[in-house]
Amino acid sequence: MPPRPRLQLLGSRIALMPSLWAWPLVLSVLLVAGVMVWLHAKEVADREAQRADLISDSLSLEAQITSRLDDETAKLRALANEIEAKSLSADVFARHALVLDGLRRFWVSVTWLGDDGRIMAHVPEDTVPAHDVTRNIDEASMAGHLSVSLSGKDDHPGGMLVARYSAGALLRQKVPWWLASKYDIRLVDESDEVIASTVDGPRRPTQAWYRVSMTPSMPNAWLELSSRERITPWWRTMPMALMGGFVMLLGVASFMLRKQMHSVSRAEEAWRTEAAWRSAMEDSLAVGIRARDMQGRLVYVNKTMADMVGYQPDELIGLMPPMPYWVPQELEQSMSRHLRNMAGQAPREGYESRWQHRDGSVVEVMVFEAPLVDAKGQQIGWMASILNITERKRMEERERKQLETMAHHARLTMLGEVASTLAHELNQPLSAIASYNAGLLNALGERPDIDPQIIKAMQRMGEQASHAGRIVKRIREFLTRREPQREPCAIQGVIESGVSLLKRDLSRHHVHVDIRCDAHLPKVVADPVLIEQVVVNLVRNACDALSAQPGERRIVVGAGQAGGFVRVTVTDNGPGLKGQSSQRLFAPFFSTKSDGMGMGLAICRSIVELHYGVLDADEAPEGGALFSFSLPVSQEELT
Ligand code: ADP
Q1: Is the CB of 167 under 6 A from ligand 1?
Q2: Angle (nearest 5°) at CA 335 between 334 and 338
Q3: For ligand 1, is residue 617 a contact (CB within 6 Å)?
Q4: Residue ranges in the chain whose pLDDT is less than 70
Q5: Residue 293: how many CA atoms within 13 Å on its side-chain side?
Q6: Ligand 1: which residue has its CA nearest to atom 7?
Q7: Residue 503 — φ and ψ, nearest 5°?
């Protein structure tokens, strides 16, 4: 099936939701919000896990260091025991295995203080403190000390053993590598001073940290672990950056979509308005519209066209010839006309056709065919506008009949007038023949030499002449006895109907007729048929006089009351009477036209005179001719 031209779109509605463009953006914002919540929750969970690790690692390291320091203290105690047992003198103190071992580990120095506070021995010698060893040891921020008391005699204090050790070396030895790679580990004192550290530099504010007190193994010292692993805030993560970019792109895309949708909506609105206008116009047209595809299938009809043939548009659309509105008796003719149209041979000026209404009545139409072209300029069918001319045809027929009747009437009147004129004209010569004949008979009757046959013939001739005279007289009597059917009538109606009979002639010669009747004109006593004939004669004469003239062609038919009469004037702007008297113009058989009979004005005069009026002809004041006649006003109007 070939594609049908899309002319039936008017009913379908494609609704565009005005907020449709925002949906992708809203959904993506929701998605992003979901991701944000998830990232935030993940960050909180990570921080908690990190803190839990931090606490457990700190406690475990603190336990290890404490245990180590306890071991060192035990070794120092063993040294002290030897001193107490007098098995160790100050001289060999520096070479004692426990002292050397301690120094190899992380002791910095070992000092033996006597019961009076004097230094009994100090190893290594180059680190001997100048004054108070204990204080010096405390002052050294990088070092701690272990001390054990020596018992003296009789419960006197016997001095003490002090081992200074490097807190840094302790950390280095005690902290496993994996812990050092995970945390920055520091030993700090009460005032946050760093005693020892696995890293240089202070703790960063963003680092998670935890402190455990080293008391009592290291009084006033704290072990601090700060995590090297940095938990990025959720809003600075890669997914957030990607999401941000995604939302921005989507925002731009939504904005463009919105613009696009606005312009589409505007175009749709304009299309809808235009479609509504078009359908309103098509339905209110007095002209039927029909579109057919290249195969002749009806693809569109407007309401006027459907009404013309008594169907609904839906019943007709899609039909192929023969159409249901073709006259059944003329199917063959209609089909050949259809084929001619499909071949593009339809007359450009249109053609007349006869269709049949659903109720059986015949519809006369005038069809104008034109190619139907789509937006690409390709012909997709045929478009026709159809005028219903049934009424016009009927009027024309009526008019034609009326004109025929009038012409017949005019011919009869003319015949009567010709006969009457002939009778009048013949009466005199016949009377003269009869008188001459009688005179001749009288003169010859007294002479005996005249052949009685001649006398007889002359008598016969006289008889025939009087017979002819009688016939002529009878004809005249018959014609003059004819009385018009007078009745009160409105002269304006008579004028209008007379002028309308000449409509075609007037428009063919481009003559404009103006009817100017006074308001409230009284009725006249007249035979409307005969007076109409007078109006027709005068207007036709004026039209004939104008037809050869260039420029404006105008006839004014006026009517006004003048005393007991109504005066009707027919004025034209033609060549005028050229000095010819009305007597001459009204004479029977006077004509200046090649095909004229010269009886028109004579008949007009007879008719007007039969109505007791007067026909007149004159030059018009503004040039042209002025014919006028008067008719008596009806008695009813006068009283
Ligand atoms: P016909 O029309 O057959 O010639 P008419 O009796 O109607 O006979 O007219 C007689 C003549 O009067 C016309 O031939 C024409 O010369 C002249 N005539 C009539 N009406 C006019 C007019 N309006 N203007 C000029 N001449 C006119």
Answers
A1: no
A2: 85
A3: no
A4: 1-18, 126-142, 152-157, 478-483, 638-639
A5: 15
A6: 600
A7: -45, -50
